[in-house]
Amino acid sequence: MSGRTAVPREPTLTIYERSREGRRAFTPPRLDVPETPIEELLPHDAIRREPPALPEVSEPEIVRHYNNLSRKNFDLDTGFYPLGSCTMKHNPKLNERVAALPGHARLHPLQDPEYAQGALELMWNLERALSEISGLPHVSLQPSAGSHGELAGLLLTRAYHEDRGERRHKVLTPDTAHGTNPATVTMAGYEVVKVGTAPDGGVDLDDLRAKASDDVACLMLTNPNTLGLFDRNIEEIARIVHDVGGTLYYDGANLNAVMGISRPGDMGFDIVHFNLHKTFTQPHGGGGPGAGPIAVSDRIEPYLPCPRVVRREPANGKDAPRFDLEYACPKSIGRLRGFHGNFGVFVRAYAYIRSVGGDGLRDVSETAVLNANYLRALLAEEPIAEYLPIAFDRTCMHEFVLSGRGAREKLGIKTLDIAKRMLDHRVHPPTVYFPLLVDEALMIEPTETETKETLDRFAEIVREILEEAKEDPEIARNAPYSTPVRRLDEARAARQPIVRQPRQPGSGAER
User: Fold this and answer.
1) Is residue 246 a contact partner of residue 269, using CB atoms and an 8 Å limit?
2) 300 and 269 in contact (C-beta within 8 Å)?
3) Helix/strand/coil (H/E/C) assignment for every residue in 253-300
4) What are 122-155's pLDDT values in tens digits?
5) Could you tell me the pLDDT band of residue 486, with boundaries at 50, 70 and 90?
6) Which of 430, 439, 434, 457 minimizes the C-alpha distance to 83?
7) I want to staple 296 with a disulfide (CB 3.0 to 4.6 A). Which of 12, 152, 300, 322 is the partner?
8) What pLDDT, on the 0 to 100 scale, is given for residue 498?
């Protein structure tokens, strides 16, 4: 504006750059009891030779630091987050309040089971609910994430085969599998064998038959798959794998599409993992915590992680049942983690299941599927469809995949450019460049918690970006413009990552 000088932005500084030696947020009072030397409390090898290089800042600086950091992140409370196969849906605040109750939040994980009856009862009830949802009778809550649940599934598979005197070396994974599946196969010591995709988006049965052998330990599959398509041949797939003695593992990342409608156990799966941080409204992202419980069939049950939560009926038939931790598991694969799982996640998930009920879970999935098909229909209209055609044009489940090849060939912009430009419209981009079998892929999952108006607006944003690119593709190529950080050099970041904070003289961080 004429006659005014623009006010420069405050430079972005890390908490270490704000540090000044001697500055404190809190100074505790002097002890009024005798002080015990640290050497008497800890073993010698557990004591630091030098104090940690922590930042030294005032309390207002701490508050402002974290407040500013929160504003730099895009989150679900800020705007639409259609990240495919991740189910970034609203997390009811009621669940947060329940998890914060003192009896839940302050319970120590080493508490004797006799004095943790409420927590164990909640865990047991959650196991029963997940069993009903999956159609499999036995559940372990131990795994800490979806990938951890995958690893548990393959370790259970190995234990099952070895107990039968079999050593199998291969695991089948479709080329639409989630990216963690092949990594988990390798970590578990198996060989990855890719299975192709049929023209309708399901598993190529001929390719599966050709690769199914007595050396196959397991098939890892999600249904619906990462194309958002339910495999019509799932019963035949299960028969092929079981006929060669393999197990069938269900990646539960897409369970939000089928709760209360179909169950993995009824499809023939032996092992299922759940993402409590996706389907059951534990906040997702930001590093966790998550939870990836597993449900298994009777033949896999002996190998479940230990200890197990058990319910013991009273001998007199009058007292309330008691809950305990069972350690007598001779064929168990053992512990997967310290303690018994991320208990706060269990509370949130159980509160969600109880608050919506069985009919509500079905409503959740039906609405998620409705929203996905509505948005898919909007994006199939011209001129969007000319530039972003649907990869597999059939009724989808909770998500669907577009191809950006038309935008690349006709407008000169890539999928990544479209995704970056969405950020300027206050919308988080969908998953891009995955699944790998779709050229310039955009995988979109609107979830059941978004309104029709939000979906209409998203379709309009996509339309605006494409129309804009007709006139000037450079706008999208250089986006985003409104974010705290502009477009990064991702190739350089991968080759030359900067993972350490430079030492700041006089900041207290140079020690």
Assistant:
1) no
2) no
3) HHHHHCCCCCCHHHHCCCEEECCCCCCCCCCCCCCCCCCCCEEECCCC
4) 999 999 999 999 999 999 999 999 999 999 999 9
5) confident
6) 430
7) 300
8) 82
